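Final report, Chapter 2: Outcomes

The project's central promise was a pipeline that accepts a single protein chain and returns its three-dimensional structure in a standardized token representation, suitable for archiving and comparison. That pipeline is now operational. To close this chapter, we reproduce one record exactly as it appears in the project archive, with the input sequence first and the structure output second.
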Amino acid sequence: MRRVLTAVCAALCVLLAGFSACADGEALLLTRDFSSRYAARGGWVTLSYTLRNTSSRAIGRVELTDPLLGDGQPEPIEDLAPGESRTVVARARVVEDAESAPVARYTTGGAEKTAAAAPEKVLIETVSLSARLTFETDEEKAVVLRVTNNGNAPVYGVKASDAALGDMGEAVDRLDPGESAAWTRAVPAPGGRYRCAVSAASSSGRNVTARSNALTARESSAASIEPEPVTLMAGMDGDGQLFVTLFNPGPDMLKDVTLREQNGGGERVIAFLPAGRSAHVPWPRVSEEARLMRFEAVSSEGAPLAEASIAAPAAPADASAEPDADLMDALDGPSLRMNEPPQTYRAMLFAVMAVMFAVMIVWHISHRRRRRQARKARLRRRQKKQQTRKSGEKTA
């Protein structure tokens, strides 16, 4: 009986020691929250770090680091009592896609330990909405507006309206990248022309606007949809460079589209723009004063396609009245910084060639092996015939 009690006590001591070790191993719990995982280039993201002492021992000093913060690392935390939580708030400026991987280093029980949160990326926000307006049926009794988020970040509060139709319906709270929202609205009277304006808010708080194609109802049952619907946006990057973005949602390719600044800021011509692609055009700022710049896109037939505006600040004091030569060379290029197509077909071709090469090698090896085996079999048959012939001669 005494041996049994001794064994039970020893097992309990081992379990208690294990629990104590586990508790010490997870003494500090680190969590992190973002104000947003998307930011405009050069914008700021607010991060909130929560440190909680889950052990029964006090932690004297905690050093928190995060590569996303760069030189703006927070001050160390002193004297974290058992069960106590502290929250540290920091801001990070985002100039390119980056990753947040916070690590907290501390000492407890005479041993140095670390606590970490799972890495998460903070992305440069790309915002682009496309709107397509069609008739629900050939009878032209209702129109359908479909809005698609072509960017890499969600947009919020998406709503649409038309001068003749009014509000298309209730706003969509959130529209994730690649998702679409649709509204259906009855036509108040036969005939008419409709073109919807779409507005939303980006993750970083910027206003996002888009306009649909123009839809004209005729006296007959045939519907007319204007070709070459596009989306035009104007914005600035973190270095103050002005960009104009033209997006073609399709279904046809755009050719010889003219981008023009309505207040005498020049014009650029895009030779071609395939469906589903966008062209990013850098635009010089030559005005010595801040002003509202209005842009318009005009088709090859001279029909207006889309409009955009931006409150552009004054050009730098050392900037000349003439645009930069390198910038003009970039603007005069044939592609106008059009997004390059993905390398999917090249990768598929490389994979097919690699598989064919591997099959040829395997076939060659197996063919040589079969030929070698056949040659050995013929040699054995020949030797056997010779032995049979010799044994017959001896018998004779």
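Archive annotation: The chain has a mean pLDDT of 77.
This record, like all others produced under the grant, will remain available to the consortium after the project formally closes.
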